[in-house]
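Repro:
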Amino acid sequence: MSKNDDDLRPSWVPEEPNPEFACSVVRGIDSAVNSVTGAKEYPDAVHLRKVPLRKKMSIEEYVEGVAKGDRMILSKAITLIESNAPKDFDKAQRVLQALLPRTGHALRVGITGVPGAGKSSFIESFGTMLCQQGYKVAALAVDPTSTITGGSILGDKTRMQNLSREPNCFIRPSPSKGTLGGVTRKSRETMLLCEAAGYDVILVETVGVDFFMLVVLTGAGDDLQGIKKGIMELADAIVVNKADGDNLERAKVTQGEYERMVEFIRPATEGWQTHAYRCSALKKTGLLELWAVMREFEKVTKKSGVFENRRQRQTLSWVHSMIEEHLHNLFFEDPIIKSRMPEVRAAVLTGVVSPSQAVTELIRIFDMDRASARHLEETKY
């Protein structure tokens, strides 16, 4: 690095030399800025600390570690699954394929609800209760990804302080954005890894689960109309949270309102009638009753065959969605399509060609064999 480069000192470093500010700002790996004197320092290359390369784990090491329930290796395996790097995709699938025989034994519970309903508080209290009863619990929190910066806060684990201390619990916050898939594929594959690691109950903020729960607030009012034809039709249970203190009576009223509403909605699961319940994640009330409901649901649906049929439909839906995602990626990552896209986009915006004509032209020049060959080359490792 040239010694004449402009000083890139951060704003929090004092402009004037200050002996009380004992901090040296490192600029890259070949220079440092002394905050007291303001002088740049360029240590000799021989004195630079060599950072060892992190050892890459083999497929066998991933499989063995996850099978033993090693939480550190489980975390690394999930990171591999979530990787957007094409070279990691094939390795991740090989790991997952080797672990498939160990999956399918956990109860997958999906939890959703309006903002402020207390989903994280419910997951923490409910998960802690299950851990204290001897169950191994995996809580998979999905954090929205910014469409502007592409980043995620991933702060759910810090909010679940009590649950994170439980030795039988594994908490994994994950971003929703993904190039090689989305929240659906990654959440499902993460669930499979947790099952292979021996977890009994999977709590996840997504659909495509065994038991789907809707957490609501008291006094929802017009919000009932907004969601009754959407998410409520998927719910196996509706839970009114924060039923404590001065809010208890309102919670009872809200529970009655939802109980009347579900009478007019087709049950989400064949042979199971959806009901409304109330609980308090703060006071830890109503949680045991909800767990009893889930176990009864599992018992009834397994006996009728609905449980297995639902999982089979979810697996086929998973296959179809992955085909769509794979074709989508092959198309938009193709170099020829990328080179033509600006021209086609400009033609559509100026009205030279219609959107249908533009799509037909792009499909015509797309070569599936070429795109597939490129994909195979990128996934080599």
